[in-house]
């Protein structure tokens, strides 16, 4: 299986957006390191906005399982 999301995208054009509106978190997926997101250690490079970032985003790797447990895909 080929990974179609291996190139890093800018924050203005993410592959996917995941949100938890109750907690105020948003993950913009900028890169996926693997084609199979169901692996236990699968991770994405994301721009993450939360109540703790004061209207900004922080960039970093996030485990896919953590996002899927706490958010819903909005695009």
Summarize the structure in short.
The protein has 75 residues and is mainly beta. The protein contains 1 helix and 5 strands; from the N terminus they run ββββαβ.
Task: Give me some keywords for this one.
mainly beta; 1 helix; 5 strands; five-stranded antiparallel beta sheet; 75 residues
Word description of this protein:
The structure is a single chain. With 75 residues, this protein is mostly beta strands. It has one domain. The protein is built from one helix and five strands. The protein has one helix at residues 64-70; strands at 16-20, 25-32, 43-49, 58-63, 72-73. It has a five-stranded antiparallel sheet, with helices on one face. A hairpin with a 4-residue loop joins strand 1 (16-20) and strand 2 (25-32). It is globular.
């Amino acid at each position: 299986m080929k990974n179609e999301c291996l190139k890093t995208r800018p924050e203005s054009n993410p592959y996917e957006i995941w949100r938890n509106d109750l907690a105020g978190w948003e993950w913009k997926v900028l890169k996926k390191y693997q084609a199979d997101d169901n692996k236990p250690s699968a991770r994405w490079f994301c721009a993450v906005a939360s109540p703790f970032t004061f209207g900004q985003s922080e960039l970093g790797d996030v485990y896919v399982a953590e996002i899927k447990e706490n958010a819903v895909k909005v695009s």
